[in-house]
Amino acid sequence: MRKILISALALLSAYGCGPKPSSPAAPAYLIYVTNERSGDVSIIDPETRREVGRMAIGKRPRGLVISPDKRFLYVAVSGSPIGGPGVDESALPPPDKAADGIVVINLASRQVVKTLRGVSDPEQIAISPDGERLYVASEDSGKLLVISRGGEILSEIAVGGEPEGLSVSPKGDTILATSEEEHTVSILRGQPLAAVARVEVGARPRNAVFVNDTKAVVPGENDASLSVVDLAAAKRLRTIALPKSDRPMGVVKWDDHTILVTTGRGGRLVRVDLDASGESVVASAAVGPRPWGLAVSPDRKLAVTANGSSNDITLVDPVTFKVLGHIAVGKGPWGVAAG
């Protein structure tokens, strides 16, 4: 009887009727990287540490944000030519305004659903906790745009020349918008949303992060500073000086007392103790040339930097600050999100 059973199982297996091996489990999350110079988004599996997809989406993709329900990825694309410090902008070609917009990607199908138009030269994006409103920094207009999920522009608010960094409070009642040109951060509240204060910070602020409901940190790229801002009093509490070789750009809250910061030309990721009376940098990892974008994985086991000059990302253990590996992506990686 046993021989008959074994023979039957072998026959079933030979004709593909036997038990099939289970498919590999899908990763708990993915990493998305905007590649400014190649005009695409890289999709990374953090478990296999491989690029598992790449989507061409338009010119100069930079800022990106994942919707709270994890269904959509919003990416800012711009037809303005690449400039920056030291570049003679009068010699650049004219901007292609038809290329400006916010690309909406369905993460399940990895397909572009639509592109939201009507925003000029968008650079960074933030989203409300309920996913109903997008906040977009329009770099060449000097405005913060509030856009509905469906694409309707709800309001336009002046926040200073060359706005870039955006951050939304956990409750969604306060928005921060930095001005590279005027070295300020605007604090916006209310319905309708309005700027209630503007605080002077470091030189060329390109990001901001909430530490709690009443305190934020704003990196100053050009003077290697971190400005700690009291949001209730609308004033700078203190300035943390990093080494002059650093160019702080990306910033993420780690806990109520520390933040993670990418240092651009400094080539490293650092952890900064905001309450330290002495040395504020308590951990550092060399990650590669010009790390800008920064994200922490949902399980808090990885910090990811986008390294613009080496066309790769770096994975770092955010507790030990050990570099875990590098993954090649497209050209000019700029922003990164994990979810």
Automatic annotation (TrEMBL):
Q: A Pfam family for this UniProt protein? A: YNCE
**Segments forming domain YNCE-like beta-propeller:** 98-336
Q: Which UniProt keywords apply?
A: Signal
Tell me which SUPFAM superfamilies the record gives: Nitrous oxide reductase, N-terminal domain
What PANTHER family does this protein's entry cite?
DIHYDRO-HEME D1 DEHYDROGENASE (PTHR47197:SF3), PROTEIN NIRF (PTHR47197)
Task: Specify the protein name.
Answer: YVTN family beta-propeller repeat protein
